[in-house]
Amino acid sequence: MAVRALLYRRPAEPHSILIKHGSQVFAVRLRRHRRARRYTLRIHPSDREAILTMPPRGTIVDAKEFAQRHGGWIAARLGRLPKPAPFQHGTVLPLRGVDHKIVHRAGRGTVWTETRDNGERLLCVAGEIEHIDRRVRDFLKREARHDLAKASHRYAELLGVKVTRISVRDQSSRWGSCTSAGSLSFSWRLILAPGYVLDYLAAHEVGHLVEMNHSPKFWRVVGKACPHTERAKAWIDTHGNDLHRYGISE
Fold this sequence. Notes:
The protein is 34% helix and 25% strand. By secondary structure, it is an alpha/beta fold. The protein folds into two domains: 77 residues, no CATH class; 154 residues, 2-Layer Sandwich (Zincin-like), CATH 3.30.2010.10. The strands form three sheets. Strands 1-2-4-3 form a four-stranded mixed beta sheet. Strands 5-6-8-7 form a four-stranded mixed beta sheet, with helices on one face. Strands 9-11-10 form a three-stranded mixed beta sheet, with helices on one face. α5 packs across α6. The radius of gyration is 21 Å and the shape is globular. The N and C termini lie far apart (45 Å).
């Protein structure tokens, strides 16, 4: 049978399996990947679930055995995920690294920031209260796109390359990506990080238009263009995973 045919999920193949660890039962999502050579597990930080990647010729039986052997790892990683912070009235979230409390206000549906006399910063959300999550999410994506576009085009001009497209998504495995055609994609959650972190990620992805790798030359290009590279990398290593808890329901 051709390898391509094996990539398609069999009609009877489940999308997830259940494994047990102690008294806990976990659902593990399955996915096949044509370049996978072995079974691997990772935790999706915003979906808060385990994902098992299977090679093209992998079987459900082997996948379940693999997941069961790593039940302790799954339980530990899921248990260490930061507490969810849903987008609702009263939640405090960072905007460009500065804490803002979400406050519901009467009136037409829009989102804006305010600062109280005591210095407390607010993210005000008007409209029906049940629409707070969507309005906050849309606002953060717009702000992220604006900041990332501005930083990316600035670095593109500095490095003498051209950015053709910028998109923002909820990426879980990496903060940004780049194609050789100049299309950049970023996680909208970067708007929650301090400004110098977002700025560094823009420099990083634009730097790939000069060097499509992570060679020493690439890091020299990025380091010369962005003086806060090491500081931003250290922040991401320490605090990056925490950004995935925002907008997640309890």
